[in-house]
Design goal:
The structure holds two protein chains of two kinds.
Chain A (H helix, E strand, L loop, with lengths): L2 H33 L8 E2 L2 E2 H31 L6
Antiparallel strand pairs in A: 1-2
Chain B lengths: L2 H22 L5 H6 L6 H12 L2 H14 L4 H25 L4 H8 L3 H33 L4 H18 L2 H31 L4 H4 L11 H11 L12 H15 L3 H4 L8 H19 L2 H16 L9 E2 H6 L4 H7 L4 E2 L8 E2 L7 H10 L8 E2 L4 H8 L4 H39 L5 H23 L6 H25 L5 H23 L26 H18 L5 H11 L12
Antiparallel strand pairs in B: 1-3, 2-4
Helix pairs in contact in B: 1-9, 1-20, 3-9, 3-14, 4-7, 4-15, 4-20, 4-22, 5-12, 5-14, 6-7, 7-8, 7-20, 7-21, 7-22, 7-23, 8-20, 8-21, 9-20, 11-15, 12-22, 12-24, 15-19, 19-20, 20-21, 22-23, 22-24, 23-24
């Protein structure tokens, strides 16, 4: 495989990872926290429902996990494709 | 020792610390002034970015807005943290690889157009100056409180301090100072929250206490709060009352805006490597989350405390008496805050008691008629004072109150300094050296940078005297502007080779102009009061408030850029190569100065 093909494969792997991460990002905040909150209203937590928890705590915790997961996965991908910094 | 001396001591000591560090790490060259020589570890950088980022809006204003609105203002929490996901995934590593000093340099090079760079500078200046207005509001309130003067005088004194402080050094001085500021800020925010959480729920972690049990009543804290606020005729705390569409758009605007703010993005130019840029965004969010997970607890618990203070015998009993407010030390904070002009009460019906309730609520109007109340008597409670007043409201020891004053100032100062740096580098580096006078010496570039800082402060003070909203709301407008202009251009520049020079310029201008127009129509032209045609209570476009418009502005930007690009000449090959190289980490050298 030429270097160009390699780079393209690296980029599409990256874009795929970004898309997956952004779906999770949107589901926990805009989804569970706002639009889908009525669906979660049956699950109570501390005097309110799970949607409220996602809006004020849960989404932030998921964001944290997402960023570290992405950084770890990408740094690994860099090495697999041999595009890491010297 | 009285409270005033104690506040002065804490604020004075923290300032001495920052100034000491700034002198120790004084910027010598232009490269150091802007980007700290790129020798900053991701954790250090994360901490400094967190201090830079968490401003008067996060520290002083946000919990107050949540306290008085409840669930509907969760947007601030999700928006101002979720933006870091966008930043880490979509921008930071690539901009680090590109390796220039400023955001507009990237836009100028990627869209091979000095015009694009100029337009980016203009977008950046508009967003940053709006942001500084919000900071000056916060500075005014903090200085007003701890010097016990009114907020306007506090604003003027604060402006002088911010200026002296920002002029001292550039990024290098600022990076280490900001690490110190982060430590002061987070301690000041967390300690009172822990105390209050222990008082109310017995749980030392406020984020858990929020969902814990209210020890005095044995009910869950949030259920107790919902009950008290509805008894007083206010909207239920945990329930959504606003429009879902507006909440989604508002959250999205804050997220996109976070990833489009120049002073935050600039931070990621200062890490040594591309992989560090990825980690750095994560560390930044760790340090931000420490405050953001606590903020909703601060808001809810303060709301409960205030309601109980105003109704010491329960909502069915007698309201607090004027005599008690004047003599009981538990209520001393009310008199101190009255001096700032941000808190007020009036015994309208002359019964010697202060009834606090929602006088627009029909049920409460009936109750009021029955009991001879003549309207809500806690006539003024500025949301922005809540966090600073919180330790006093909960009767915490004096040193905690002093610490919070120092923390609020640290938050406002660190962000104001970072923004002024972004503004001054845009003017001196991008506008003057990049465009108008390329042969400028390093010395006159630094001079121009400092003059532009002074000019930005003056503008911010003038506009800050009549702010368009509470501090966090003013700041939200700045995010809308950054969301609509800078973020789409950066993202398209990295993820698409198709977007060309004309498309990018058209997109940025379209995004900026529609958003600015929408804001001015609702908040008044240049924020001058009474020049608005619409209000956020009844916005032009259905439920979309002016603070939420940034997301629509960004969509306009993307659309216009795409359509215009597809009608005009294709991007040249060397630019496509540039985009390819930005996408691959290998070969990232240290950044170079561009012209």
């Amino acid at each position: 495989m030429s270097q160009d093909d390699d780079n393209n494969a690296y980029w599409s792997a990256n874009v795929r990872l970004i898309l997956i991460s952004l779906v999770i990002w949107a589901v926990v905040s805009f989804g569970f926290g706002i639009v889908l909150r009525p669906l979660l209203s049956g699950i109570t937590i501390g005097g309110t429902d799970l949607g409220f928890w996602f809006a004020q705590q849960g989404s932030i915790l998921v964001f944290l996990v997402l960023i570290f997961f992405y950084a770890w996965r990408m740094n690994k991908l860099d090495r697999e494709f041999g595009v890491e910094e010297e | 020792m009285d409270q005033f001396t104690l506040n002065l001591l804490f604020v004075g000591a923290s300032f001495a610390l920052y100034i000491g560090i700034a002198i120790w790490a004084r910027a010598g060259s232009t490269s150091e002034f802007y980007a700290a020589g790129r020798g900053v570890h991701p954790v250090t950088n994360g901490m400094a970015t967190a201090a830079d980022w968490m401003s008067a809006a996060s520290f002083i204003s946000m919990a107050g807005l949540i306290a008085f609105t409840g669930y509907d203002n969760s947007s601030f929490l999700m928006g101002w943290t979720g933006g870091y996901v966008l930043l880490a995934l979509l921008l930071a590593p690539y901009l680090r690889k590109f390796g220039k000093f400023t955001v507009s340099e990237f836009i100028g090079d990627r869209f091979y157009s000095p015009t694009a760079r100029m337009v980016a500078v203009i977008c950046l200046l508009v967003a940053s100056i709006t942001y500084v207005i919000g900071q000056m509001q916060g500075v005014g309130i903090a200085f007003g409180r701890f010097l016990e003067i009114n907020a306007t005088a506090g604003l003027l004194i604060g402006a002088c301090v911010v200026f002296a402080y920002a002029v001292f050094g550039g990024m290098k001085g600022v990076t280490y100072t900001q690490v110190a500021q982060y430590c002061v800020l987070i301690t000041a925010y967390t300690i009172p929250a822990i105390f209050i959480s222990l008082q109310l729920t017995g749980n030392p972690v406020p984020a858990l206490g929020l969902f814990g049990e209210h020890t005095a009543s044995g009910e869950p804290l949030l259920a107790k709060l919902d009950q008290i606020v509805t008894d007083l005729g206010f909207a239920e705390y945990t329930v959504a009352h606003g429009s879902t569409i507006n909440m989604v758009l508002f959250t999205l605007s804050l997220m996109i805006g976070t990833a489009g703010l120049p002073h935050v993005i600039m931070r990621f130019f200062t890490v040594p490597r591309v992989s560090d840029a990825r980690w750095s965004a994560g560390w930044t969010l760790v340090f931000i989350a420490l405050l953001y997970l606590t903020a909703p607890a601060v808001g809810a618990m303060a709301r409960l405390n205030i309601s109980e203070l105003m109704w010491p015998n329960g909502t069915d009993g007698q309201a607090v008496s004027v005599e008690q407010i004047e003599s009981d030390p538990e209520y001393a904070w009310m008199a101190t805050w009255e001096k700032t002009g941000l808190l007020g009460w009036e015994d309208k019906n002359g019964d010697g008691r202060i009834q606090y309730y929602n006088d627009a609520n029909a049920d409460l109007q009936a109750k009021a008629a029955e009991n001879g109340w003549e309207g809500n008597e806690l006539t003024n409670f500025n949301r922005d004072i809540l966090v600073l007043a919180n330790p006093e409201i909960a009767s915490l020891p004096g040193w905690v109150i002093g610490l919070v004053a120092a923390g609020g100032l640290a938050a406002a100062l660190s962000t104001a300094a970072g923004l002024l740096l972004a503004i001054s580098s845009a003017v001196s580096h991008d506008l003057l050296k990049g465009q108008l006078t390329p042969n400028m010496s390093e010395k006159s570039e630094l001079l121009a940078a400092r003059i532009s800082m002074a000019a930005a402060i003056v503008v911010a003070v003038i506009l800050g005297l009549n702010p368009p909203g509470f501090a966090a709301q003013t700041v939200a407008l700045a995010f809308g502007l950054a969301a609509a202009s800078i973020f789409p251009a950066l993202m398209m520049g990295i993820f698409s080779t198709r977007i060309n020079n004309v498309g990018a310029v058209a997109g940025m201008l379209a995004g900026l102009i529609v958003t600015l127009l929408y804001i001015f129509l609702h908040k008044g032209w240049f924020f001058i009061p009474d020049t608005n045609s619409f209000t956020d209570a009844d916005p032009l476009l259905g439920p979309v408030k002016s603070t939420s418009f940034g997301a629509i502005g960004a969509a306009v930007n993307f659309l216009v850029a795409y359509v215009v690009s597809s009608m005009t000449k294709e991007t040249p090959q060397e630019i496509k190569d540039l985009v390819q190289s930005v996408r691959i980490p290998r070969g990232a050298g240290t950044a170079v100065e561009g012209h």
